Amino acid sequence: MAERNPPSLDDPAPRRGTVLHNPFQGDAFGRAAETFARMMGTPAFLVGMTLFCAVWLSWNSLMPVSAQFDPRALNFTLLTLILSLQASYAAPLLLLAQNRQDDRDRVQVEQDRQSNERNHATTDFITREIASLRLALNDVATRDFVRGELRDLLEELDSPPDTDASDHHAAPAADPMDASTLRSILREEIDSVLRERDLAGAHDHQKEQDPS
């Protein structure tokens, strides 16, 4: 049995025959069907068909018999055949256009479902993040809490120390200079906190009046 030698790479490939394009493959035929279906559903098509039938019937009814190509005596056979052919071809074309529209609607519904799933996942993620932030903020001392603690400390420093009448050996009193210094420091801290709050409130009020 003789061995077949493969063709050399330098040899040109044999010329193939011309491939005819099938008009029923691809999307061209479907687009044409949809175009025809849209055209049939317009008022212009209805008015045109009405004028066509009126001219046809008037010509074959009023013109002389020799000029009539679809005589009235034969019950307009040619016109009946044309309208029957139109109806027989229009129904499948309309069904084809409807099937293509259903396919597009199905794809659109699937895309909407995927988009809703992504939005739902994003919403769940944001909700969990907000919950974690709230839990983290519960352990943070707020400005009102610090202000209240400082106010309570000032009240304790301003109040006179409790003395026990039964105790003859009372403990020595604290240094008044140190207590007054501590009270002045605490008052300065409270005043600074209040000033910061007033400045923040004025800044927010200015933003509300001038949104630009």
Walk me through this protein's architecture:
- The protein is an all-alpha fold and 212 residues long.
- Helices cover 68% and strands 0% of the residues.
- It is built from five helices and no strands.
- The protein has helices at residues 28-40, 43-62, 77-138, 143-158, 176-209.
- The two termini are 92 Å apart.
- The model is unreliable at 164-177 (pLDDT under 50).
Task: Give a nutshell description of this structure.
The chain is mainly α and 212 residues long.
Structural class by sheet pairing and helices = mainly alpha
Q: Secondary-structure element order, as H and E? A: HHHHH
The helix fraction, in percent, is 55-70%
Output the number of helix runs.
5
Proportion of residues in extended strands: under 5%
Could you give a short account of the major beta sheet? none
Question: What low-confidence regions span 5 or more consecutive residues with pLDDT below 50?
Answer: 164-177
Shape designation: rod-shaped
Rg over alpha carbons:
47 Å
* Average pLDDT, all residues: 76
- Terminal Cα span: 92 Å
Number of strands: 0
